[in-house]
Design brief:
The structure is a single chain. By secondary structure, the protein is an all-alpha fold. It contains 6 helices and no strands. Helix 2 runs antiparallel to helix 3 and helix 5 runs antiparallel to helix 6.
Length: 180
C-alpha cells in the first residue's frame, strides 16, 4: 500500500513537473504573432527573388528580425515576458519595402521600354548620366528613389524630344530658305 502511495505521489510529481515544463515553453500570443510575421517576411523575400528584384536590404532586415525574435523567445522562456515589437516593426518594414520594390520594378520596366522606343528616333545621349542613375538606384535597392527618378526620366526624355524636334524644324526651315 505504501509503495503504491509513493508510486502515485511520484507519478503526480512527474506529471506536475512535465506540465510546468510545457507551460514554461508555451509561446505567448505576441511571440506567435511575431513568428507568423517572420513567415510573411520570408514569403515576401521569396516573391522578390522570383521577380528578380534585389533582396540584400530586406534580407539583412529579415536576419536581424529573426535574431531579435530568437533572443526575445529565449528571454520569454526564462522570464515569461518579452517584447516582440521590434521584430514586428522590422517585418512591417520588409513588407513595405517589398511593395515599393515591386512598384519600382514595374515602373522601371515600363520606363525602359519607353526609353528604348524613344532612343530609336531620338538621340538620348544627353541623358546617359540620368539613365545610369535610374538603373543604379534600383540595383542598389533605393526603390523609393527609383520611382522618383523614373518620373524625372520621363520629363527629360520629353524635353530632349521637344528640343530635337525644335532643332529639326529650325534646320528644315533654314534649309528650305537657303534653297529658295
Amino acid at each position: 500500500m505504501k509503495t503504491s502511495k509513493n508510486l502515485f505521489l511520484a507519478l503526480v510529481l512527474v506529471t506536475l513537473v512535465i506540465s510546468l515544463t510545457n507551460f514554461s515553453y508555451a509561446l505567448s500570443n505576441q511571440s506567435m504573432q511575431a513568428k507568423e510575421k517572420l513567415a510573411q517576411a520570408g514569403s515576401a523575400i521569396e516573391e522578390l527573388i522570383v521577380l528578380d528584384i534585389p533582396i540584400k536590404r530586406v534580407n539583412e532586415t529579415h536576419q536581424s528580425a529573426k535574431q531579435i525574435y530568437e533572443a526575445q523567445l529565449n528571454y520569454e522562456r526564462i522570464y515569461r515576458n518579452a517584447d516582440y515589437k521590434l521584430v514586428i516593426e522590422y517585418v512591417d518594414e520588409i513588407l513595405s519595402i517589398k511593395e515599393m520594390a515591386i512598384k519600382a520594378s514595374d515602373e522601371l520596366k515600363i520606363f525602359l521600354e519607353f526609353y528604348n522606343e524613344s532612343a530609336e528616333k531620338t538621340d538620348l545621349s544627353e541623358m546617359d548620366e540620368e539613365y545610369t542613375e535610374i538603373i543604379s538606384s534600383f540595383e542598389e535597392e533605393r526603390f523609393e528613389e527609383t520611382i522618383n527618378l523614373v518620373d524625372l526620366g520621363y520629363d527629360t526624355i520629353s524635353d530632349v524630344e521637344t528640343s530635337q524636334t525644335t532643332i529639326n524644324a529650325f534646320r528644315d526651315a533654314t534649309t528650305r530658305t537657303l534653297k529658295n
